[in-house]
Structure formats: structure tokens, C-alpha cells
Design a protein that fits this description.
The structure holds two protein chains of two kinds. By secondary structure, chain A is mainly α. Chain A has seven helices and one strand; from the N terminus they run H-H-H-E-H-H-H-H. Chain A has two domains: about 90 residues, RNA polymerase sigma factor, region 2, helix turn helix motif (Rna Polymerase Sigma Factor, Chain: A), CATH 1.10.1740; about 70 residues, Orthogonal Bundle (Arc Repressor Mutant, subunit A), CATH 1.10.10.10. Chain A is about 65% helix and about 5% strand. Classes of the chains: A mainly alpha, B alpha+beta.
Chain lengths: ~160, ~250
């Protein structure tokens, strides 16, 4: 098993390539920084032993793994929620957090599909392939998520 | 199809470069540790190990989900679906945080029994005189000023698993609590001065969790979803409340 491990340099490079992606995914589930940090670390530790075919493969693998880790964590007994404002470490001026709240409020089973489709720009077929589910399921999830986002964002979301 | 609003929302939650660097250092440190050592570096892994050891907790954990409210200004609570149940408000417990963190810098520790636990923490637990509390795992956050505890608790030869959470002086988090998807409690046990323990059936129907607050600790007790299991749960609640001698224990 150890032979499959990547070196520290490789792990560092992997981390830098995907930490933002993995963080976005984990935060959208966990909604607090402390749990997100745990999930991000766990996802990369698992990637440490994983052989990847390509950068795209490792990215897709990390997104799915991170989503599953978060879903499992949320099933456990406790967690913490913290005020959103405490965790917006942005250099840019603060903007209306409505879209962010709407995204975080989406049901768990929509989140990965919404992230892959609307943030990463994958099409429904690619999302279905990454999430290993039928295209119809992805389209249904996206449609329902879109409906919820429209409601929360005042019908302006497309 | 990218969406500008969604992209902007996701980008807003990114951590600072400094945070990312700290996470990387922790990751590299964790990756360099042998697997066995890594298993004790995270409370989540510790909890996972305990979950594996306690089949009851596995089944119950699957029936639990997180409370996810964005409401500010709330304190600890029990959420049954969308409804918050009124439990005793949690007040910070007596705890030797400085001494504890000096000995356990990452906040995580294991104790064989109650005596070693209370010696290391300065914290007392209700019912310790009557109950056997063993295999205690403690996770205290100096940053968030909160504590989580897992243990095996027993009385009269019967044991089960119990979790608890509590606040320390200086606690600042706004929202915190247990949440379950059950729409309503399966049973509400009034045990002393109108205080209540809420018994909530797990999704698989095999186990029941009892939620209640005593001495500033919010407990989550796991028992089998059977009459004897619930009776054990009620006896344990009585012991933790110090009212076991005054209660009629169901036959």
C-alpha cells in the first residue's frame, strides 16, 4: 500500500491544484470552517493513496470523495453551525450573501450536482458520469435545485 | 453551464492563503504519520473507531442528521425536524481548560474511567456516583470553548453508549445542538421537576436515542428500541438526574 503513496511534493502539488475545489464542496455541506477543514484534510489523505489517471480524474475523484465524506459526517451525532459572516475571509468588498445562503441551503443530494454544473461548468452528461448516476437524475436534481434557488433569489436565477 | 452568481457565492467561502497553508502543514504532518498514529489525531476518526466498536452507535448515527439552522442567537437545543425542543439552557461547566490543554494540546484524550477523567479535567459528571462510566473519549476545543464526550455508561450490569456536549467559559458560538430527522419524539419521559428526556426512534427502528440536559451537559443516550431498552434508558436518565431512588421504574 505504501508504494501507492505520493511523495510530500506530489501531495503538496495535488493540494494546491484542488484545495479550493475541495473546500467549496466541503463547505457547502458542512457550513462551518472547523468541520470543513477536517473534511478537506480527510479527502486529501485518502487521495494520498490513490493512483490517478489525469488531473481531471483526480479532481472528479476528490469532489465525489469530499461529498461522500461530508454526507457521512452529517449523519453523525453532532456538528456545529457558525455565523456565516465569521468565515468570509475575502479581500474583496462584501457583497450580498443571498446567493451564498441559497447555495448552502440546498438539500444535500443537490449540492454536488449544482456545484459541478454551475461552478465547474460540466454538462449534465459529465456530471452524471462523475456522480455515477443517470443523466435523468442529474437533470431532475438540477431542475429542483434551480426551482429552489429561484425562490430564494427572487426568481432571478437561471 | 456556469452561473456567475453561483460562482461568486462559492468563491466567497474560500479560506485565506494563510489558512490554506496551515491546513497543508497539518495535512503533510498527518500524511507522514503511521496509520495507527493518525487514527488518534482527529476526533472524527476517534468517534469513527468508537462507532465501529459500538454497533449500537453505528445504527443510531445513521439515523441522526445535523441541525442546520442559520438562525443566530440560539443556544444549544434539540431539533426534531424543523421544530426546536426546549431543553434546559446550557451554562458553562467547571473545567480546567488550561491544565487540560497543557497535557492534551490537541484537545483529545481517552480515559479508562470516570476518576481519571475528572482528575485530568476538573469536571464532574452527573450520576457518576451511581453509574459506571468507562472508555471515556473527550474532545475539547479551546478555540470554540466547547466539549464533546463519548463513553460507555452502565448500571446494574447493563451498559450502553452515551454522547454529551457542553460549553466552557468564553463560549461564543451562536448555534449548536443535536438534530434528528424524526418529526416527533417517540416518547417523552418526565423525570424530575418537569424536566424531560426525549426518546427518538432511529431510522432503522432498532435503536432509540434519548436527549436530555443535566448539569450543563446535553446528553445523547443510545438504547435498544425495545421496552427493556427504553426502561434501561429511563433508569440511566434517573441516575444522571440523581432521582433514581424517587422514580417508579417500569416493570
Amino acid at each position: 500500500m505504501d508504494s501507492l503513496r505520493c511523495t510530500d511534493q506530489e501531495l503538496t502539488a495535488l493540494y494546491h491544484r484542488h484545495v479550493d475545489t475541495v473546500w467549496r464542496v466541503c463547505y457547502s455541506f458542512m457550513k462551518n470552517r472547523a468541520d470543513t477543514e477536517d473534511m478537506v484534510q480527510e479527502a486529501f489523505l485518502r487521495a494520498y493513496f490513490q493512483p490517478f489517471r489525469s488531473e481531471e480524474h483526480e479532481k472528479a475523484w476528490l469532489i465525489v470523495t469530499a461529498s461522500n465524506l461530508c454526507k457521512d459526517a452529517l449523519k453523525r451525532a453532532w456538528r456545529r453551525d457558525e455565523p456565516l459572516e465569521d468565515h468570509l475571509e475575502l479581500a474583496a468588498p462584501r457583497r450580498d450573501p443571498q446567493a451564498l445562503e441559497a447555495v448552502l441551503a440546498l438539500p444535500e443530494h443537490y449540492k454536488a450536482a449544482v456545484y459541478l454544473y454551475y461552478y465547474e461548468g460540466y454538462d449534465a452528461k459529465e456530471v452524471a458520469s462523475i456522480l455515477d448516476c443517470p443523466q435523468a437524475t442529474v437533470r431532475t436534481r438540477l431542475a429542483r435545485a434551480r426551482k429552489q434557488l429561484k425562490q430564494m433569489l427572487g426568481g432571478e436565477f437561471e | 453551464m456556469k452561473n456567475k452568481e453561483i460562482c461568486s457565492a462559492y468563491d466567497r467561502i474560500l479560506p485565506s492563503d494563510e489558512t490554506k497553508e496551515k491546513m497543508l502543514q497539518k495535512l503533510l504532518a498527518a500524511a507522514s504519520e503511521p496509520q495507527a498514529e493518525r487514527n488518534v489525531t482527529s476526533m472524527k476518526r476517534l468517534k469513527k473507531r468508537y462507532i465501529v466498536l459500538a454497533a449500537a452507535l453505528v445504527a443510531l448515527a445513521l439515523s441522526c442528521t445535523a441541525m442546520a439552522s442559520g438562525v443566530l442567537g440560539e443556544t444549544f437545543g434539540l431539533w426534531l425536524g424543523e421544530q426546536k425542543v426546549a431543553l434546559d439552557e446550557l451554562t458553562p461547566v467547571a473545567f480546567d481548560l488550561e491544565g487540560y490543554l497543557a497535557k492534551y494540546p490537541n484537545g483529545i484524550s481517552e480515559f479508562k474511567d470516570y476518576n481519571s477523567f475528572t482528575e485530568a479535567t476538573g469536571m464532574t459528571l452527573p450520576g457518576a456516583g451511581e453509574l459506571q462510566m468507562t472508555d471515556i473519549v473527550l474532545d475539547v476545543s479551546g478555540r470554540w470553548r466547547t466539549g464533546h464526550i463519548c463513553m460507555t455508561v452502565g448500571t446494574e450490569g447493563e451498559t450502553t453508549h452515551m454522547n454529551g456536549m457542553f460549553l466552557l467559559e468564553g463560549h461564543t458560538q451562536e448555534v449548536y445542538g443535536y438534530g434528528v430527522e424524526a418529526v416527533k419524539a417517540d416518547d417523552v419521559y418526565e423525570y424530575a421537576e418537569g424536566r424531560r428526556a426525549y426518546f427518538v426512534k432511529g431510522e432503522d427502528g432498532q435503536y432509540t436515542q434519548a436527549y436530555f440536559v443535566e448539569d450543563g451537559v446535553m446528553f445523547q443516550l443510545m438504547v435498544e428500541n425495545s421496552r427493556p431498552g427504553k426502561e434501561l434508558g429511563k433508569r440511566l436518565v434517573d441516575c444522571l438526574a440523581g432521582t433514581s431512588e424517587n422514580q417508579d421504574v417500569p416493570e
